[in-house]
Amino acid sequence: MELRIGKASVNVLDRSVMKRLGSDSCVRSIWRAAAAAAARGETTAAPSFGGNPARGESPAPAAAASRIIVSDPVTLSCKDPGRLAAQEALNGLAVRGAAPETLTSVVLLPAGSEEALLRQIEDEIAAAAREAGARIAGGHTEVTSAVTRPVVTVTAAGPLRGELLQAVAAPAPGMDIVMSGAAGMEGTWLLATMRRAELEKRFPPQMIETARRTFRGISILPPLELAFQTAKAGGFHIAGAVNLSEGGVMAGLWKLSAETGNGFRVSLPEIPVLQDTIEFTEHFGINPYCMESAGSVLLVAEDGDALAGALNSHGFGGTVIGHLEAGRGKVLLNGDESQNLNRPEPDSLIALLG
Question: Is 151 within 8 Å of 117 (Cβ atoms)?
């Protein structure tokens, strides 16, 4: 079967990647630890690592192996590929409950590339590392005819954050799904940046410039940190987090169901999407809910209203968009109508920037 352009589909990943590579130790996250603890009748994931630090016990050797590694490539034609790849990898690390420790990169440049481009990409990666408190642990750079534009892959690695364990729990039906950010955030920035000349034929230049500034930040580390703090202070738990990147909100919801082992019921009108995103995507005829949405995150929480309120009060945006349900049903509500979410489509931007 010929593979489609873009990220491999869920089915392809299941049958041709995960079944062959395994799916445990190197990708183990704080959520799997919480689910394992719940299965044993424990209230937190801490015992999953052997000793309980709260009782003065030393962690078992497995604790040292609880290290998360996340890689993310940028393959679209875009500005700032080093920044985007680094931040996406850091976001992926954060939603797995890990602290950033090291970044490594692979940079492939097309023939004829100027050295200034390489310096720009490496400066972007270094800046992301500094901001996250991580160090550069190595990398590879190559000019090759195998690519027609820069392809940048950043790998972020770090240990699970033990201090978060008291704020997490295994997912269960009835828990709220909270979205921080808005649909299509990174995609809107990419459109305003890479398709600016075309957009200026229809929209005021100031509107496009505002979109470029508004949507440029794609880090989910601050809202995620606030979410954990709010849960600990409020006495409730968070039971899952999904970074909304390639494929947007719809791909994120599908992944959320797979990672929590639950179905869901989500109201489409409740999914936040900003006006600039609506107008730009209507102009290009693409779906904002299936477009790159880095800068946004889905969270599963026992008290979604409290979590959303805290996120809103700090300017990150927070909306309860639905809840988990028993089984595997993935229901999208739109007024009196309902439909089941199909397997995620390729990211809407591939047709424009792929």
Answer: no
**What is d(CA 177, CA 331) in angstroms, rounded to the nearest whole number?**
13
User: Could you give the strand order of the β-sheet that contains 337-340, starting from the edge strand earlier in sequence?
Assistant: 238-244, 296-301, 176-180, 319-325, 263-267, 330-334, 337-340
Reduced to 3 states (helix: H, G, I; strand: E, B; else coil), residue 235 is: coil
Return d(Cα 299, Cα 320) in angstroms, integer.
Answer: 9
306 sits in which H/E element: helix 304-313
Phi, psi of 108 (to 5 degrees): -110, 125
Which residue positions in the chain have pLDDT lower than 70? 1-29, 32-65
Amino acid symbol at 12: V
Cα–Cα distance, 304 to 319 (Å, whole number): 8
pLDDT value of position 164: 85
Give the C-alpha separation, 119 to 141, whole Å.
11
Q: Residues with Cβ < 8 Å from 131, sequence gap 6 or more?
A: 219
The residue written with tokens 């889905």 in the block is 298
**According to the model, what pLDDT value does residue 297 have?**
97
Q: What angle do CA 95, 101, 103 make, to 5 degrees?
A: 90
| pLDDT confidence of residue 263 | 97
**Type of residue found at 205:** P
Residue 317's φ and ψ, nearest 5 degrees, are 85, 135
Return d(Cα 3, Cα 20) in angstroms, integer.
Answer: 18
Dump strand ranges (E) for 111-174: 135-143, 151-159
| Ramachandran area for residue 310 (φ above 0: left; ψ -120 to 50: alpha; else beta) | alpha
Which residue has 């090291």 as its token pair? 102
Q: What's the confidence (pLDDT) of residue 214?
A: 82
